[in-house]
Design brief:
This protein is of the alpha+beta class and 357 residues long. The protein is 40% helix and 13% strand. The chain has a six-stranded mixed beta sheet. A hairpin with a 2-residue loop joins strand 3 and strand 4. It is globular, with a radius of gyration of 22 Å.
Length: 357
């Protein structure tokens, strides 16, 4: 990423344009730090509020972009003080489960959330992948910040030390410890695939069709033998395609032609909003799946049972009874309503500072 060369006075004098310009990349940054799209939205708003209040004292020793990242990082660090990390079920340290075991959920855990591609800078999708963000959550907050600033944003050790009010030696030490933890999990921002090819496109079409028909054999064939399945807020996680197939066969309430999917994108990965047929015959949100494809098969599925995510991703609140996979997304239905405005739809707004620069 290159440093912006815009006139700081011009940029800071037009805050609506400033927020529109940087909102999506700052949201990606705050999401990596927090693991929550909901929290990241609030953190970005706090960043712009602090920047607006401090704009009169901006001295131009760095670009406005760097200045905003510095504010955002420290806003995130303050927010993360005393808070537990956001895990996925497999990150809780519990063994994988067998299909048929009792399902247990825990709504008290602050779970890792997926983020819509539409809300972040897509060019950064290599460092926004679900597995990478999940691995970041295992790092202490300051190590997390150092790794993101150094490896994702490519800041120098001196720039990071200045932003975090520490020394270059401390930054280098924190980065070394962070790399060691990430290497233990075999995860870096580079362990990603390219954009979907034709074969993967066919695979996804087959995946949607298999769920629509509830064809367990087909689902098992589309999963890698060592595939994993996680579904927060349920604490269990499942290893192996046949085990996952049995889970879907016995624990999923839908039958044939009960589970249409609408495609979206999350964390730079293919994702689907899966709907479930109701007693009235139409379909309501059930869970949001985020898929990791490797070597022509699905290697990991994160199935997030959080209804508000359908609002975050701008997905319909309901589908008509005659909806079928592959049909155009209806334009005459309400978008699912959550507890916030979907990301990317509203920019920061505030009255101009009362004191001049």
């Amino acid at each position: 990423m290159t440093t912006q060369q815009d006139d700081p006075t011009t940029e800071l004098g037009d805050f609506p344009t400033l927020t529109e310009k940087y909102q999506r990349e700052l949201l990606a940054h705050c999401y990596r730090m927090s693991g929550s799209v909901h929290e990241a939205e609030d953190l970005v708003q706090e960043t712009f509020l602090r920047a607006w209040k401090a704009s009169a004292s901006f001295q131009g020793r760095s670009s406005v972009r760097t200045w905003l990242y510095r504010i955002a990082t420290n806003v995130c660090l303050t927010n993360l003080e005393g808070r537990p990390r956001r895990p996925l079920p497999a990150g809780l340290g519990t063994p994988d489960q067998m299909a048929g075991d009792a399902l247990e959920w825990d709504h008290e855990i602050a779970w890792l959330e997926p983020v819509p591609d539409a809300a972040v800078v897509v060019a950064e999708r290599d460092s926004i992948r679900l597995a990478f963000v999940a691995a970041l959550q295992h790092l202490p907050a300051r190590q997390r910040a150092v790794l993101i600033l150094r490896d994702v944003l490519r800041w120098s050790a001196a720039e990071v030390a200045d932003a975090l009010d520490t020394t270059v030696a401390a930054v280098n030490s924190a980065l070394q410890r962070a790399h060691a933890q990430m290497n233990d999990r075999d995860l870096t921002e580079d362990t990603v695939d390219e954009a979907l090819d034709d074969g993967q496109r066919v695979l996804l079409d087959q995946y949607v069709d298999a769920f629509w028909r509830k064809d367990i054999d087909a689902i098992v064939r589309l999963l890698k033998a060592e595939a994993t399945w996680e579904m927060p807020p349920f604490t269990s996680w499942y290893l192996g395609n046949k085990n996952i197939g049995q889970l879907i066969a016995t624990q999923c309430p839908g039958g044939t032609n009960d589970m249409p999917m609408i495609e979206t994108r999350a964390n730079g990965q293919p994702a689907f909003g899966l709907y479930m047929r109701t007693k009235e015959g139409d379909f309501e949100p059930f869970h949001l799946q985020v898929l990791d494809i490797r070597d022509g098969q699905v290697a990991h599925v994160g199935a997030f049972f959080e209804p508000s995510l359908f609002a975050t991703f701008g997905l319909p609140a309901r589908l008509r009874a005659d909806f079928r996979p592959g049909d155009p997304v209806p334009s005459d239905v309400d978008v699912a309503r959550g507890d916030h405005v979907p990301t990317g739809h509203e920019a920061f707004t505030a009255a101009p500072p009362t004191s001049g620069r």
